[in-house]
Specification:
The chain has five helices and eight strands, in the order H-E-E-E-H-E-H-E-H-E-H-E-E. Strands 1, 2, 3 and 6 form a four-stranded antiparallel β-sheet that branches. Keywords: Signal.
Length: about 180
């Protein structure tokens, strides 16, 4: 019985020592590994709410048919504010054309999914006066597509233009590529 009391007393002392008052100690801070300023961003996810119809406009999607491929091309305009954020983003981001959400008819007709276009290279090619750039991508279609499938593939309304983060996950999508939204930015 005495040994049980000594054990309990020892445990109580250990607990009391371990639970000292930490109220006067400063809270630990998380290190800022990347030393970002307010104008610098690690990922486009840091400002994903800036991708909306007031900041991003598009022209009509043009689809050119080749022997074994389709070339998709669209002009995109962004505001100077969004351009500044994209220019000051550390991680890469990408653009790609994809099936509309809930559909897979385009991807099923392709030999392979296309490699996304590097967004930083497009943004870096812009001059100070222009915030317009062209996203162009080739889709290699299977040899055995039917005419109905080809008709579907050549309809701009069946695609969306996705902006992808560094992990190539969608952050923003423009649908209705058969309609131009160009107006004054």
């Amino acid at each position: 019985m005495r040994s049980i009391i000594y054990v309990l007393l020892s445990l109580t002392i250990c607990l009391l020592i371990g639970c000292q008052d930490t109220a006067n100690q400063p809270a630990p801070t998380e290190p800022n590994d990347n030393n970002q300023t307010a104008d610098e961003f690690l990922s486009i996810r840091d400002f994903q709410d800036s991708f909306h119809g007031d900041n991003v406009k598009n022209d009509l999607l043009e689809i050119t048919e080749g022997e074994e491929e389709l070339t998709l091309s669209i002009e995109v305009a962004i505001t100077q504010e969004l351009l500044h954020k994209l220019q000051n983003t550390t991680n890469e981001f990408y653009y790609t054309f994809a099936d509309l959400e809930g559909s897979n008819e385009v991807s099923e007709a392709l030999e392979e999914l296309p490699r996304p276009i590097e967004g930083q290279a497009l943004i870096d090619s812009l001059n100070e006066e222009s915030s317009h750039f062209i996203v162009q991508q080739e889709l290699h279609i299977k040899n055995n597509v039917t005419q109905d499938q080809l008709d579907y593939l050549t309809n701009p309304a069946n695609y969306e233009l996705q902006t992808l983060d560094e992990e190539r996950l969608p952050v923003h999508a423009i649908i209705g590529l058969d309609i131009s939204t160009f107006d004054t930015l």
